[in-house]
Every structure is written in C-alpha cells, then in structure tokens.
Design brief:
Shape: globular
Number of helices: 11
Number of strands: 15
Order of helices and strands: HHEEHEHHEEHHHEEEEEEHEEEHEH
Bound molecules: N-oxalylglycine, nickel (II) ion
Largest sheet: 8 strands, mixed
C-alpha cells in the first residue's frame, strides 16, 4: 500500500528516513509516483552512464555448457574469464522452473508491507545472515543508489529454514542448491588453467567456502538518467552467478572505457569473476567493473549468488602459480578483512582490490 505523505511538503519530509530507516526502500518512493527524482539520488555526471561510451558491436561470450566435455568449451570459459571477466552460460543444468520460481519469490518478498520488510533491516534483524536494505552503504554514500535488496548469507540449511523470510526461503535455497554443480564445473575448469589439478577440501574452503544470495529490486524510477541502480563496482566474490529478468540494464566495462550491455537471455545465467579470484589467480582472471542503470518504465529484479572464500581463509596468489615462478602481485589477506574494507565505503569501481596489492 502506498504510504500517505504530502509530496508538496518534501522540504520538511525526511526522505532518507523514509527510505532507509522506515523500511519503505526506494520501492516505497517509486510507488508514490513523484514527479521528479529527489536530490538524494542524483549522481554526479561522471557516475551516470554516458550513451557515447556504450558499444553495441561487442558482446560478452555466451557459452553452451552442454559441451563441457569438449576441451574447446573449457578454453572458451577460461578465455572469457581472462578477457572479459564476464560471460553467460546456457544449458547449465539449473532447471528453468527453479529460476522462474526465485524471480517470483523476489517479487513476493518486495511486495510485503514496509513494516514486514523492516523486520530484516540492520537494526531489527535477529541475525547477521539476513539483511534487508536499500542502496549500498547509505551512511557512506554522497548519493544514494536506486535499489532495494534482501541479502541472505548461507550458514546451514537449518539456519536458513529458521531465519530466512518464509515467502522466499524455499525458492532461494533451491536455486542455490541447484547451482552448485555448475559452480563446481566452472571452478574446476578455471583451476585447471592455473595448474590446480583438483579442488580438494582446502581449495573448496578457499574458493567456495561461503555463499551469499541477494534478491535485488530496482523499482521504476522518475528521471532514471540522473541516477544509477548500482554504481560502478567489482564483486568481492570468487565468482558470481547472476540471474536477471528480461528488463536489462546491466553494463560491463569493456576496453578503452567503453560499456557493454549484458542482454537478457531467457534461461541463461551471467557469470562473473570476483576480486577474490583475480587475487588468487595473480591477476590472470579479471574481476571487471559493472553497473546497473535505473529504469523509467519497469520494475527489475536480479538474483546473484556470490560464491565466496570462507571468511576465515587467507587469500593470495595460489601456490601453484608462485611455484611456477610467477612474481606475486597481491599480498596474503584475511578474506573477512577484505570484505569489511569493501563494505566500509561507497561503490568506487575497482578500488577495493588496491587493498590487496603489493
Ligand atoms: C551485484 C550486481 C547486477 C544486477 O549485485 O553485485 O552487480 O544486474 N548486480 O543486478
Ligand atoms: Ni556486482
């Protein structure tokens, strides 16, 4: 239900409080159908996407996982991870119904009243594993981002069953479980090029020792050209598996400061390399900047699974690379320190990775 607030009194009305603290999120603001974007969300021009920098001739690779036994497919995956840091996969083995269900569950969660969603906010959530929020780090940002999210950290099936919101937990868990095989297959292939022959227990903890799933909601925005859905950033994951709906709006940085759109393909998953794998691969695989534009006519959802090192792991260039004589470009850092550094500041492109540079 749209909250009753007198729009003409916007000067005396605390928008940040309404959006950030009261649990309405930008969805609440969107539903008020404001005639123009509140100043809180206006991004500086350099953070908005510049149409002259968008290239349409190039596209990130689309890889058919059905041919995984063919060494050529493995080569395509590793090449894409080196060149683009981004690719899409089709025939990945996650049933389309599972993908549809989790998108629907995302809409269901965000359709809950603010009061209900607020129970999962930083202040009210009874667990660190469940977090409803808006923008990225509102307390550190000069301009807010036009996005609400529910972030679910996976600890165990029992914990998820007990704590994740009931309108979406089964679907989120199913999507996560069904994605595990393709995640393993991708990591196997990527590791082989780095001279890592198998993912044993130690490597498993290092590469995929923790998982986080986010349900993202980008509501219809007045003046979408003045703001962003998500600002320029790279992910801190090992890799990210992203499900997007058919609206579009995700852009990836290409060569010479250009931006490339990731077109929605029904049934596909977008895979991107995160900072942790860039560091562990000693810079061979690239964690590439990306961002999401806001949309003036449709509500968009996306559901990324962040496949992360276990927080207690120390990450750095893999011994298999250093034994081969490579000079390390990165230090050994405690992964939880790296993540803390990321969440302390606003989105700032690729700067987080400086934290680990030698
Ligand atoms: C993210 C992200 C892209 C999208 O959540 O890190 O980049 O399309 N999302 O929502
Ligand atoms: Ni991202």
């Amino acid at each position: 239900m749209a909250p009753t607030v007198v729009v003409s009194a916007t000067n005396s009305w605390d928008i940040t409080d309404f959006v950030v603290n009261q649990g309405h999120g930008v969805k609440g603001l969107s539903e008020m159908k404001l005639p123009s974007l509140p100043k809180h969300f206006i991004q500086p021009p350099e953070e908005r996407i510049d149409a002259s920098k968008v290239v349409c001739e190039e596209c990130i690779p689309v890889i058919d996982m059905a041919g995984l036994d063919d060494p050529k497919v493995a080569e395509l995956i590793c090449d894409a991870a080196e060149k683009w840091g981004f690719f899409q996969v089709v025939n990945h083995g996650v049933p389309i119904g599972v993908l549809e269900d989790v998108k629907e569950a995302t809409h269901r969660f965000f359709a809950l009243p603010g009061e209900e969603k607020k129970k999962y906010s930083k202040e009210n959530s009874n667990s660190n594993s469940v977090r409803f929020g808006t923008s990225f780090t509102p307390q550190a940002e000069k301009s807010l981002e036009w996005k609400d999210y529910l972030s679910l950290f996976y600890v165990s099936e029992d914990e998820a069953s007990a704590l994740w919101p009931s309108v979406c937990k089964d679907q989120a868990l199913e999507y996560m479980k069904r994605s595990e095989l393709v995640i393993r297959q991708l990591l196997d292939v990527l590791m082989r090029r780095l001279n890592v022959k198998e993912i044993d227990e130690k490597k498993e903890s290092l590469l995929m020792g923790s998982m986080r799933i986010n349900l993202n909601y980008y509501p219809i925005c007045p003046n979408p050209e003045l703001t962003v859905g998500v600002g320029r950033h790279s992910d801190v994951s090992t890799l990210t598996v992203l499900l997007q709906d058919d609206i579009g709006g995700l852009y990836v940085k290409g060569v010479h400061d250009t931006w490339v759109h990731v077109p929605p393909i029904r049934g596909s998953l977008v895979i991107n390399i995160g900072d942790a794998l860039q560091i562990m691969s000693n810079g061979r695989y690239k964690s590439v900047e990306h961002r999401v534009i806001a949309n003036g006519s449709s509500n968009r959802v996306s559901v990324p699974i962040f496949v992360n090192p276990r927080p207690s792991e120390v990450i750095g260039p893999l011994p298999e690379l250093l034994e081969g004589g490579e000079e390390p470009l990165y230090k050994q850092v405690l992964y939880s320190d790296y993540v803390k550094h990321f969440f302390r500041k606003a989105h700032d492109g690729k700067n987080t990775v400086e934290f680990a540079k030698i």
